[in-house]
Amino acid sequence: MRYRLQFFLFFSLALLLSFSSCESTRSVSQRTPANSVQEYLQRVPGLIVSKQGLLYQNQQPIIVLDNRIVEYSDLLGMVNVQSIASVRLLKEQTDIKRWTNAPASAVVLVKTKAN
Fold first, then answer.
1. Cα–Cα dist 50/47, whole Å
2. Sequence-distant (≥ 6) Cβ neighbours of residue 86 within 8 angstroms
3. Between the chain's N and C termini, which has fewer beta carbons within 10 Å?
4. How far apart are CA 86 and CA 29, in angstroms?
5. Rounded alpha-carbon distances, angstroms, from residue 23 to 19, 27, 89
C-alpha cells in the first residue's frame, strides 16, 4: 500500500510538471516601461533579439503586426514602443500554420493599442 501511494504521488507530480511545460503561448507583461521595441521583445522568454532580426530555436519566427505579416526592420520602423499593447510568442504548429505554410519555429504576434 505504501509503495502504491508513493508511485501515485510520483506519477501525479510528473504529470503536473509535464503539463506546466507545455505552454503554447507566452505573453509579455510590462513591469517597467521599455525604451525601445527591441528591449520590449527581449522580455519575451526564449526569443533572441539582435539588430539583424529575431531568432527562436535557431530559426526566424514569423512576425505578425496587427494581423499583417511584416519584416523585422519594418516592425522597428512602424511601431513606437509606447503603442505596443501586447506581444505573444505562439509556438504550436496549429498557430504557425494559421499564418504561414513555410517552415517556421514560431509566430511573434504584436498588437498595438490602436487595434
1. 10
2. 27, 28, 109, 110, 111
3. N
4. 8
5. 8, 11, 10
* Full DSSP string of 62-108: EEEETTEEE-HHHHHHH--GGGEEEEEEE-SHHHHHHH-SS--S-EE
pTM here is 0.69
Q: How far is CA 51 from the centre of its chain?
A: 18
Q: Following CA atoms 96, 100, 103, 104 in sequence, which dihedral angle do they give, to the nearest 10 degrees? A: -50
The whole-angstrom separation of Cα 91 and Cα 106 is 5
pLDDT at 88 over 50: yes
Q: Could you tell me the three cell numbers for 52?
A: 539583424
Kindly give, in sequence order, each residue whose CB lies less than 8 Å from that of residue 35, ignoring residues fewer than 6 positions away: 81
